[in-house]
Design a protein that fits this description.
The structure holds two protein chains of two kinds. Chain A is an all-alpha fold. Helices cover 76% and strands 0% of the residues of chain A. Chain A is built from twelve helices and no strands. The chains are: A mainly alpha, B alpha/beta.
Chain lengths: 272, 286
């Protein structure tokens, strides 16, 4: 594995998929603008409203980049076969493992980092603008600055690393596998099997283990976490507790199997 | 040294046999034309050589197994699969950055020098370029790679004659230096006849004819005869015969130049003519 090939392959993914940064940029700007309009309207208790806007900003940006990640993965190994550009990429000395791993790197590392940077930037701009508006109105701004900012940012980073990267790895792996395999409609091939398994399980065994497992995976295994119920994500009291959950390791095994399959398929599949 | 050494290569897609035991040896410094009708197995053969498809049989390219070591092989092999495979979203400058970043034998200055002779802007995206410009760009890219083997699969398909001529001129003048090896397939046989050193015909997944161009030109002759001498000329058992403007053009193998000159005009044989003759004798036309 050569580091040059990996670095340049990741770069080229970002060149091709500008939605990686454009989508969170647009959402961040919209949130900041609507938050300001809300503050200008000025109802009572601006500080608690502001605090909830900050939480919503984090949630909305995470949802945005998750959607970007899903569509990115589904297209990553499908689009290059569809437009035959895979023939060009394969003419370069980049192995199939390097190509597939560089594509996995995007949802696992690039998107969480982008989400963190854009969320913190959006929140900081909201803080500055809201402070300006409130001080013009002659209201106190100190309570805004006294929110637990460092803890909130650390909590956001923790959530992004643990849930959006480490816990979602098998989801991204599965989407890349489908993307490498499908001859058409990768979106349907990715989601129909999950729906089918859930429905068949319900009808045949009258149980919902598969649906529960998926739900727990999407919530990042956080359904049992102490911070449950609050959108405000703070640094948890036991940050490495998640490493002891078997679900995490099973998920990684599944992700590794999916990636191995995707690498084999990229080598064997012809352009569509 | 053999750059490509293929022995008994077979490849089937379901019940369709694409390659039916191909034996092919290409030595260093040759420019080989692989010519065959549609569906003859040309592209499958090239894909096997480039490590893009699996196969049965023995194949080494630059002493490597292309299927198991494609990415390493691509240090020494450059190819143009066809002109439409450059990613449409990419900018010219990004393409050069990427090639420079991942390819140890890519010389960016060379690519820039070639592009300077064209009207291709560095900031343009591939989708904004005309077909001919995309071909120039791809050629600039592969010519800047110090490769030992260059493989071109229909590199000028869909281009007008000016671009096609330029393409092969650049290839010969700016790239080929006698130690490199080029393997090219095309339908425009006439256009590459003069640049080849060797020719290979493929049909139904088999090599049906191979020859060096020297051997080809000394072995075959074309004879243009008026109608009154046609019977005498036919007695020489031409491989192929066609009529143009009332005169007959005959392709003759191992003919005696002086004897032929008495019958009509003797010309250099055309590869296209021999191709048709070979294909028809192997039962291509129903």
């Amino acid at each position: 594995m050569s580091s040059g090939a990996m670095t340049w392959s990741v770069r080229r993914e970002v060149w091709e998929n500008r939605s990686i940064y454009l989508a969170p940029l647009i959402v961040g700007v919209l949130i900041a603008l609507s938050s300001i309009v809300g503050t200008l309207g000025g109802l009572n208790s601006p500080v608690s409203r502001f605090a909830s806007h900050i939480e919503i900003a984090g949630g909305a940006l995470m949802a945005t980049t998750l959607i970007v990640a899903i569509f990115y993965c589904l297209d990553a190994l499908y689009g290059e076969r569809r437009d035959r550009s895979v023939l060009f990429w394969k003419s370069m000395p980049v192995s199939d493992s390097e190509a597939v791993l560089s594509k996995m790197f995007v949802p696992m590392v690039i998107l969480p980092v982008v989400t963190f940077v854009f969320t913190v930037a959006t929140q900081f701009i909201m803080l500055l603008l809201t402070s300006a508006i409130l001080s013009l109105k002659g209201e106190a701004v100190a309570p805004l600055w006294n929110l637990p900012w460092p803890q909130m940012s650390a909590g956001l980073l923790y959530h992004l690393i643990v849930v959006h990267s480490l816990y979602y790895a098998p989801i991204f792996g599965w989407l890349l596998l489908v993307s490498a395999w499908a001859k058409r409609l990768p979106f349907l091939w990715a989601f129909l099997p999950a729906a089918a398994i859930g429905i068949i399980e319900k009808f045949v065994f009258n149980s919902t283990h598969f649906a529960n497992m998926l739900g727990s995976r999407i919530s990042g295994g956080m359904d049992s976490s102490p911070t449950k119920g609050s959108m405000m994500m703070l640094w948890p009291p036991h940050p490495f507790e998640f490493l002891g959950r078997p679900g995490l390791w099973i998920g990684w095994l599944f992700a590794a199997a999916c990636l191995a399959g995707a690498i084999l398929l990229r080598r064997r599949r012809d352009p569509i | 040294m053999a750059v490509i050494d293929a022995r008994g290569i077979r490849k089937a897609f379901g019940s369709t046999v694409a390659l039916d035991g191909v034996d092919l040896r290409v030595d260093e410094g040759r420019i080989v034309g692989l010519i065959g009708p549609n569906g003859a197995g040309k592209t499958t053969a090239l894909n096997a050589i480039l490590g893009l498809t699996s196969y049965q049989g023995q194949l080494t390219v630059l002493e490597r197994d292309p299927w198991t070591s494609r990415s390493r092989l691509m240090h020494d092999v450059a190819y143009i699969a066809d002109i439409a495979v450059l990613p449409r979203w990419i900018r010219v400058s990004q393409l050069l950055d990427f090639a420079g970043g991942v390819h140890p034998r890519f010389d960016r200055a060379k690519a820039e020098a070639f592009l300077a002779k064209t009207t291709i802007g560095r900031n343009a995206r591939v989708r904004e370029l005309s077909k001919g410009m995309v071909a120039q760009l791809h050629l600039a890219l592969v010519m800047a790679i110090d490769a030992r083997l260059l493989v071109l699969d229909e590199p000028t398909l869909g281009l007008d004659i000016l671009y096609r001529k330029q393409f092969y001129d650049s290839l010969l003048n700016d790239y080929f230096d006698g130690s490199r090896t080029i393997l090219v397939t095309t339908h425009q046989v006439e256009e590459i006849q003069d640049i080849l050193t060797d020719v290979v015909f493929i049909n139904h997944g088999r090599i049906v004819f191979r020859s060096s161009m020297e051997e080809f030109e000394s072995r075959y002759l074309e004879l243009v005869v008026p109608p009154d001498r046609l019977a005498a000329a036919r007695a020489l058992r031409p491989l192929h015969e066609r009529q143009i403007l009332g005169r007959s053009i005959l392709l003759i193998e191992n003919g005696d130049r002086q004897q032929l000159a008495a019958l009509g005009e003797v010309r250099k044989p055309s590869l296209a003519e021999l191709f048709v003759a070979v294909m028809e004798s192997k039962g291509v036309t129903p």
